[in-house]
Design a protein that fits this description.
The structure holds two protein chains of two kinds.
Chain A: H1 2-6, H2 11-53
Chain B: H1 2-8, H2 11-43, H3 57-84, H4 87-119, H5 127-148, H6 152-166, H7 169-179, H8 199-231, H9 236-249
Helix pairs in contact in B: 2-8, 3-4, 3-6, 3-8, 4-5, 4-6, 4-8, 5-6, 5-7
Classes of the chains: A mainly alpha, B mainly alpha.
Chain lengths: 54, 250
Amino acid sequence: MKEFFHMGGYGFYVWLSYGIAAVVLISNIILPVYQRKSMLNKLAKKIKRAEQLK
Amino acid sequence: MMKFIHKTASPPYFYHLSGLWIPWLGMITLLLLMAGLYGGLIYAPTDYQQGESYRIIYIHVPAAWMSLFIYIAMAGAGAIGLIWRIKLAETVAVCSAPIGAGFTLLALVTGSLWGKPMWGAWWVWDARLTAELLLLFLYLGVMSLYVAIPDKRVASRAVALLALVGVVNIPIIHYSVEWWNTLHQGPTVTKFDKPSIDLRMLVPLLIMAVAFKVYYVWSLFLRVRVELLERERNSQWVKELLKQNKESQA
């Protein structure tokens, strides 16, 4: 197990690569999910306001 | 055929359809990533020259392939949007840019992390590296141009033109290792003879490449849905969608 994380002395380069990959890939999923939620909320509020003005 | 395209490409229909596909795309991506990571980090043997450091290949090469693939997809969708004025194509082009930029950045950073222990340098101004850096700037240019123009349909046309001009860079990146004598190693997979790579190393690499492709569609659909909502916020289907949401919450 220790050997696996050591990666023959290249652990730092290998794991940093995989770590950065994880950050990039996950953020490109979470960001749009969050944006869609806030967009739906924003549009719902706009409609509510329009109805109150009537 | 044209009727089918117009139906599938209509924003409300695509919004609905992509909603059904997204969970499946997510699941397939995760399964493929698990298989690819197991194969790449555990199953594949150690390289006789580069030791364990070569395992960066399982991120670096698929990410670099994606950076080119997404660029071509973006320019292609942009061209379709320019010619036939299909709204969905415009949206796909615009939403591809941040995902492509992510993969390009990933290819550059992992390349740097691989170059340091192997070449002894984080960065060299060699043909392939420089062309890939230019690709990152093209993606960022597309993204900022789109944000800078308020009318989204005009912005889409401008973006498509920029993307199409930048296509020149794609063959340059691909053939750079053959045209110029560089530090970057030559192709081991995408050449016409038998690939000069051990099969136990190659299979996980191909699995990772497929995983990244499915991931792209997944992430793209998520982004396209947001963009469609914003662009079509005054249309009837978005109003009905919001009404339905309200009823289901109440």
